[in-house]
Amino acid sequence: MKRITVFCASSFGTDKIYEEQAALVGKTLAEQNIDVVYGGANVGLMGAVADGALNAGGKVIGVLPNFLRSKEIAHLGLTELILVESMHERKTKMNDLCDGVIALPGGFGTLEELFEMLTWAQLGLHKKPIAVLNINGFYDSLIELLQTMTEKGLLKEVNQKMLLVSNDIEDLLNQMRNYVPPTVGKWIDKKNV
User: Fold this and answer.
1) Dihedral of alpha carbons 99, 103, 109, 115, sign
2) CA–CA distances in Å: residue 24 to residues 27, 30, 170
3) What are 84's strand-pairing partners?
4) Taking the chain, what is the end-to-end CA distance rounded to the nearest angstrom?
5) What is the pLDDT of residues 99-128, one digit of tens each?
6) How many of the other CB atoms lie within 10 Å of CB of 180?
7) Residue 121 in contact with residue 161, Cβ under 8 Å?
8) What distance in Å separates the CA atoms of residue 48 and residue 10, rounded to the nearest whole number?
9) CB neighbour list of residue 39: distance below 8 Å, 6 or more residues apart
10) In contact, 52 and 26? CB cutoff 8 Å
């Protein structure tokens, strides 16, 4: 893996550990010579990831829609800042630039980005590892919901297992390096319902 996209909040949240772990993610990626691709802002967890990588000598590529330049405050110290016109173009560009995805704590935007990448993988549009860093159990309820979807027959178990989970960045990166995408497609026939 040469580049990893990190999705996360543009705020810090209520627990200091989110900021600390975001900075550690950036630092760890830089130390392992993995470039960071992220949303391009210098605020919140987004800024902490970027600064963690930059302070460790890493390369950081930001992808920021023009209309968010003033709201999310573009990070001016990046290796490269790519300006795009829309949120969809942002996600597409971030996907094009990366070899895998990690989601840290975040809100609607983070979840939307995470689930779009999972959906694209489920449909066979890419075979990249997708992971969540489950800091202090932040994603426990989401993981439980995915299990419920599987138990209720709305999500195949093979697709549920596409989401890699750990509370430790080193373990998560090892899982990502060893990831084998499913060979079963999303679509089923009437005999296998």
Assistant:
1) positive
2) 5, 10, 10
3) 65
4) 36
5) 999 999 999 999 999 999 999 999 999 999
6) 7
7) no
8) 10
9) 7, 10, 46, 62, 63, 64, 72, 90, 94
10) yes
109-130 burial code (b ≥16 CB/10 A, e <16):
ebeebbebbbebbbeeebebbb
CB 46 within 8 A of CB 39: yes
User: Is residue 73 very low, low, confident or very high in pLDDT (cuts 50, 70, 90)?
Assistant: confident
pLDDT classification of 193: cutoffs 50, 70, 90: very low
Two tokens, residue 140? 């426990």
Tokens of 90: 């942002």
Task: Label residue 67 by pLDDT band (50, 70, 90).
Answer: confident
How far is the C-alpha of 138 from the C-alpha of 114, rounded, in Å? 14
pLDDT at 71 over 90: no
Q: Using alpha carbons, select from 57, 83, 88, 58 the residue that is nearest to residue 69.
A: 83
Nearest to 64 by CA among 30, 37, 99: 37
Can you tell me the distance from the alpha carbon of 66 to that of 2, in angstroms, rounded to the nearest whole number? 27
Please spell the DSSP secondary structure of 111-180, one letter per residue: HHHHHHHHHHHHTTS----EEEE-GGGTTHHHHHHHHHHHHTTSS-HHHHTTEEEESSHHHHHHHHHT--
